[in-house]
Specification:
The complex is a heterodimer of chains A (543) and B (434). Chain A has helices at residues 2-29, 35-40, 46-59, 65-72, 121-135, 141-153, 160-169, 173-188, 194-207, 210-220, 228-274, 282-303, 311-333, 342-364, 390-412, 414-424, 426-431, 436-458, 470-483, 488-509, 511-528, 539-542; strands spanning 76-79, 85-91, 94-98, 105-110, 114-116, 380-383, 386-389. Chain A is of the alpha+beta class and 543 residues long. In chain A, the strands form two sheets. A five-stranded antiparallel β-sheet of chain A has the order 4-3-2-1-5. In chain A, strands 6-7 form a two-stranded antiparallel ribbon. In chain A, a hairpin with a 2-residue loop joins strand 2 (85-91) and strand 3 (94-98). In chain A, helix 9 runs parallel beside helix 11. The radius of gyration of chain A is 31 Å and the shape is globular. Chain B folds into three domains: 1-32, no CATH class; 33-150 and 295-372, 3-Layer(aba) Sandwich (Rossmann fold); 154-287, Response regulator (Rossmann fold, 3-Layer(aba) Sandwich). Chain B is built from 13 helices and 19 strands. Chain B has a seven-stranded mixed β-sheet, with helices on both faces. A five-stranded parallel β-sheet of chain B has the order 2-1-3-4-5, sandwiched between helices. Chain B has a three-stranded antiparallel β-sheet with strand order 17-18-19, with no helix packed on it. Chain B is globular. The two termini of chain B are 39 Å apart. Residues 1-31 of chain B have low confidence and may be disordered. Classes of the chains: A alpha+beta (543), B alpha/beta (434). Chains A and B meet through helix 5, helix 10, helix 11, helix 14 and helix 15 of A and helix 1, helix 3, strand 7, helix 8 and helix 9 of B.
Chain lengths: 543, 434
């Protein structure tokens, strides 16, 4: 027993010695020890902290990066007993403390023994720029790219020489390009010659994009008057290049809104479009799908956090089955008694929608539930002068694939054949041996299930609350009626054209008026073509 | 305990579309002389249930706590809970029912300005008292209403000052939902900013419908507006459910708080509970209370709240504090007056000081607004706010000094003036407003 303890002690002593030597070696080379500067943060207000960070950045000590990073994340604490500053990470009810410079562990401490060092936005900006300077020469390519980005976002003349050194050493093309851009931006606020600044303006112009306009407009006030012409010409040239991209971006927004409308409406295209049921509970099926996603994510968080990025894929079948089952029960329990009585169906399904809403409110509470975005659905990427957000792109892809899948089911499967047979001529289908009541029930369940799947996708961009469905029900009916009742292609074209129309009206007349105008246009259109864009023709219509 | 069964019944009633009938049918059952009744008028179903249900719970908790301390004037308090179901005309109906049938001594309720405007004539006609616990646009002062939430000068103007001074903001986006609170607040803010020398071209005003969920165009417009080389900030009066998709879009389009900060007046701990706040760290909110306030009274309140709801994840927020202040002010005023008679309480409540949850006290002013400090908080990764600035207590200003229609009006409900809209220029009571 004792020998074991002694061994442990020796082991940790040895480790400690190694640590001290390895860390002490470089720190002897530095002129200033950064630790007192960091410890001074414990008593500094925001203004003083800003100065301290400037001094820390001036040391050029790359070991400070973790501390600065922790500070901007709000993970820097000082110990109340001795005012020493540590990086703290929550560990149960305690904090795990590490030294901000060496990274050595300083043991655990109770939460109330330390105080968080406060941070605000302007401090975060200062830190970002300081970190950029400190990590420009990092061996890791990703870190260098981030550093160049950071310098680009908060440029300062002080980083100029450092950037030039970094550029001369850089081998990676993308990182180098970013650094050249950052250098050009930083140069504008420096005291370099006018000719150099003129070249910098050209460099920025060649990169283009919205940010370049902002940089040039911001810098123009402090520049020599003789450069004003160059700046104006550069801005004008970027803007003319940007104009086409802006139109493209608007179309993209329209398609993206259209895909959301399509998602919301596609289940209704079956229950209302194909079966003719005025289904006011459609929105609640979407809501149930979103709540299924929430429950699935909750279970994954508790039991298998590693699977989180797969949570949506797992939620899809769950949502389909849950809402499909609810749809089946609603059809068997309520709607089948009301076929051919549209007004009563409307009232009954509205009642069902209220019951479902209040049930969810009683189970989960009235507040929003958090549904997380998997990492592959967060953030955005640039395409030329456009920004494409990942979640919107996936939702477009998703809604189109649901549309295709549904089309295949309707046109190629025997269930689809039965379904079309029953809706076209119920008595004939019945005479051919098709069990029409069950076809009705499963068609309704299919429509509801698809609404549930839509809910999985919508949980990524909207609130998950009991009211979720209400905000989509009007839009869904609008799309189905506009596209032509009973026609899936009509729903697709209707949703996309309404989306694009909305997005082209929005910038010029505003979101509120835009929505009203779209409604008015649809009403006028329905006056002209009562059966919508793609009207069904032939005997089926009269039946 | 009777109120519990009643709230349960009316919840069920909401679901079955029979809230009105079931609640009315139950009214007669609770006529006892040894209790003082107070009304709780918050939506428990419909779109506003998301915010208002919490306030109903807070009121029930406060009543239970007060009863533990022996009640008021030696009598137990009894909360009468009704569900106006997010339906503005129904608010007026329910208010009338609470006052005339249930004979409640005071009512605590309403959230939206529309619901308050709907019940205002009822309270004035039947001479009862309403405590309104939510931040609002001002431009109103009723003899029968106490506004314990923030007026624009207790929230919006200090927030804008903070951004201008501490963040150096020169360009402003005023984004709001299209209804009375954002419209009026933005009108006041625009006038205020222009009085501080901000050019009209540096202010962008944008309105969106209720529940707006597609923010792509607007967020990219904000980005465009912000790329003019001047520091830009968004002042958001976006209401309710529209906030979640708005913040999600901001995060996805990569707008960081360091670049374009958003300061919100309707986003509190409760709203953030439905969001992953990591991409939002640093965006701001201005309130008179945050759950993260470091005060003993707040720690105790949070503890009680967790015990009452039997859920230690439930957050507290600013309207809850306003309800807390309003309730305690009423209790103190009733005890001072020795009666729950409306006129006596209206006289005794002015000047009453009660502790607020940020560690100071709030006083009921003659204009029926209260004093409280303004806190600016930055959103943290855990969904709480880090307080970056706290002001001294500010008196709520009912008639804004920055709007031409109301700058000459003041309100003073003490005798002999007793006027909600006294015009200091003409020296007469009366003018715009109620």
């Amino acid at each position: 027993m004792t020998s074991k303890v002694a061994f442990r002690v020796l082991q940790s002593l040895g480790l400690l010695l190694c640590l001290i030597f390895s860390l002490a070696a470089p720190s002897f080379a530095q002129q200033t020890d950064p630790k007192p500067l960091i410890d001074a943060l414990s008593k500094a207000d925001f203004g003083e902290a800003e100065k301290l960070i400037g001094q820390l950045a001036a040391t050029g000590d790359a070991r400070l990066v973790p501390a600065l990073n922790a500070f901007s994340e709000g993970d820097l604490y000082f110990r109340k007993s001795d005012n020493l500053v540590f990086i703290g990470k929550a560990a149960g009810s305690n904090y795990e403390l590490t030294d901000p410079v060496t990274g050595a562990s300083a043991g655990q401490t109770a939460k109330n023994a330390v105080t968080k060092i406060k941070i605000n936005n302007s401090l975060r900006r200062v830190i970002r720029s300081a970190m950029g300077g400190l990590t420009l020469l990092s061996p890791d390519r990703g870190v260098r790219l981030q550093a160049a980005d950071a310098v680009l976002r908060s440029p300062s003349a002080e980083n100029l020489e450092l950037l030039e050194t970094a550029i001369s050493k850089e081998t990676d093309g993308e990182v180098k390009a970013r650094m050249v851009e950052a250098r050009a931006v930083s140069l504008l606020s420096s005291d370099r010659s006018i000719d150099e600044k003129r070249t910098a303006i050209q460099t920025i112009k060649n990169y283009g994009g919205r940010n370049a306009i902002g940089i040039l407009m911001g810098a123009s006030a402090g520049l020599d008057p003789s450069l004003k012409g160059d700046v104006d010409a550069a801005i004008a040239s970027i803007e003319s290049g940007q104009r086409l991209w802006d139109i493209g971006q608007n179309v993209w927004y329209g398609v993206s809104l259209g895909s959301v409308l399509l998602l919301a409406a596609i289940g209704l295209a079956i229950t209302f479009g194909v079966m003719g049921i005025i289904n006011m509970a459609h929105g609640e099926m979407v809501m149930l799908g979103a709540y299924s996603t929430f429950v699935v994510q909750q279970l994954i968080r508790d039991h298998a956090p590693g699977l989180f990025d797969w949570s949506l894929a797992i939620a899809l079948p769950v949502a389909f089955l849950v809402t499909g089952a609810v749809g089946l029960v609603v059809e068997r329990g309520v709607i089948r008694f009301l076929y051919g009585r549209p007004l009563e169906t409307l009232l009954a399904t509205w009642g069902v929608s209220l019951i479902l809403q209040q049930t969810i409110r009683s189970i989960f509470g009235p507040t929003n539930q958090e549904v997380g975005n998997p990492s592959w659905m967060s953030g955005s990427f640039p395409v030329g002068g456009m920004t494409i957000t990942w979640n919107r792109m996936w939702i477009i892809a998703f809604s189109l694939s649901i549309f295709v899948a549904l089309l295949v089911v309707m046109k190629k499967s025997s269930f689809g054949l039965n379904m079309r047979a029953v809706t076209q001529n119920r008595r004939m289908a019945s005479s051919m041996g098709i069990k029409t009541p069950w076809v009705d029930a499963f068609t309704f369940a299919l429509g509801s299930g698809i609404a549930g799947i839509a809910g999985v996708a919508l949980s990524q961009i909207d609130n998950v609350s009991p009211n979720l469905g209400q905000s989509y029900i009007i839009d869904s009916f609008m799309v189905v009626v506009f596209g032509g009742v009973g026609n899936l292609w009509g729903t697709l074209v209707g949703a996309l054209s309404l989306g694009v129309l909305n997005k082209f009206l929005e910038p010029s007349v505003g979101a509120v008026l835009g929505k009203i105008l779209v409604l008015v246009l649809i009403i006028l259109f329905i006056q002209k073509r009562p059966r919508g864009l793609f009207a069904l023709k032939g005997r089926a219509v009269e039946a | 305990m009777t109120f519990k069964s009643k709230s349960g019944k009316s919840k069920l009633g909401g679901a079955l579309l029979a809230a009105v009938m079931s609640a009315t049918a139950l009214q007669g059952a609770f006529a006892a002389d040894d209790t003082i009744k107070i009304g709780v008028l918050h939506s428990l179903s419909g779109t506003m249930a998301i915010s208002e249900t919490t306030l109903k719970d807070v009121m029930l908790m406060l009543v239970a706590e007060q009863n533990k301390k022996g009640g008021v004037l030696g009598k137990k308090l009894e909360a009468v809970v009704v569900d106006p179901a997010s339906d503005w005309p129904l608010f007026a109906e329910k208010a009338r029912q609470l006052i005339s049938q249930d004979k409640v001594a005071a009512v605590f309720g309403c959230w939206t300005s529309s619901s308050r405007k709907s019940v205002l004539p009822v309270f004035e006609e039947l001479n009862s008292i309403l405590f309104y616990p939510v931040q609002y646009e001002g431009e109103e002062s009723s003899r029968n209403i106490f506004y314990t939430g923030a007026a624009p000068n207790q929230q919006a103007i200090p927030a804008v000052d903070y951004l201008a001074k501490k963040e150096g903001v020169k360009r402003w986006v005023l984004a709001g939902t299209d209804y009375v609170y954002p419209q009026t607040t933005n009108k006041i803010l625009k006038a205020y900013l222009m009085s501080k020398g901000v050019a009209e071209s540096d202010i962008m005003v944008n309105y969106t419908p209720f529940g707006h969920s597609d923010w792509q165009t607007i967020v990219s417009d904000i980005k465009k507006f912000g790329s003019a080389g001047k520091k830009t900030a968004v002042v958001s009066t976006i209401n309710g459910d529209a906030n979640v998709p708005f913040y999600k879009e901001l995060g996805n389009q990569g707008i960081k708080a360091e670049d374009i900060p958003v300061v919100a007046f309707s986003v509190g701990e409760e709203e953030l509970a439905g969001l992953d706040t990591k991409p939002l760290v640093g965006h701001l909110a201005a309130w008179n209370y945050f759950q993260s306030v470091d005060a003993d009274v707040n720690a105790e309140f949070i503890k009680e709240w967790h015990a009452f709801t039997k859920n230690d994840k439930r957050v507290t927020n600013d309207p809850m504090e306003a309800a807390y202040i309003g309730f305690n002010a009423w209790v103190k005023a009733v005890e001072a007056a020795g009666t729950t008679n409306t006129d006596a309480v209206l006289d005794s409540i002015i000047g009453v000081s009660v502790p607020n949850l940020s560690g100071g006290t709030s006083t009921v002013m003659p204009n029926h607004h209260i004093t409280k400090p303004v806190l600016i908080g930055e959103i943290q990764a855990d969904g709480q706010f880090d307080i970056v600035q706290e002001t001294a207590p500010v008196v709520g200003d009912e008639w804004s000094d920055y709007l031409p229609d109301s700058k000459n009006l003041i309100s003073d409900w003490r005798k002999p003036m007793s006027c909600g809209n006294f015009n200091v220029a003409s020296g007469k009571c009366g003018g715009k407003g109620s």
